[in-house]
Specification:
The protein is mainly beta. 6% of the residues lie in helices and 47% in strands. The strands form two sheets. A five-stranded antiparallel beta sheet has the order 5-4-3-6-7, with no helix packed on it. A two-stranded antiparallel ribbon has the order 1-2.
């Protein structure tokens, strides 16, 4: 029988891909993934909004509900992402009171004609 080898820190670095860095610390995304339009852009963070369907038990129907989330914007992506863009965010460790997500990638540019 072969003994299982323990994973070292070097092996974990190969598996886990850090997305952004915060003051020399890496942020590893894990958990839920959302897509939404950027509705506001701040220094180092963005706010996205998207609609979802919620079941209302009393009326036995579905209703549209809007959700707004804040996400950390990595320094590498600050110039790429603007208001109106469609982006993908993923859950990470809590970074502050409202920041629990980090921007993964830009899916589509917003309409620049407006």
């Amino acid at each position: 029988m072969k003994m299982k080898e323990k994973k070292t820190d070097k092996d974990r670095e190969k598996i886990e891909k850090p997305v952004g860095t915060l003051k020399k610390k890496t942020v590893i995304p894990r958990g839920r993934i959302f897509e939404g339009m950027v509705i506001a852009k701040f220094p180092k963070r963005v706010s996205i909004g998207f609609e979802r369907m919620v079941y209302v038990q009393k009326y036995e129907r579905y209703a549209k509900s809007k959700t707004k989330l804040h996400a950390r914007l990595p320094e590498e992506m600050e110039k790429q992402i603007n208001v109106g863009d469609l982006i993908k965010i993923q859950e990470c460790r809590p970074l502050s009171k409202i920041l629990h997500f980090i921007v993964i990638k830009k899916i589509k540019s917003g309409e620049s004609g407006k």
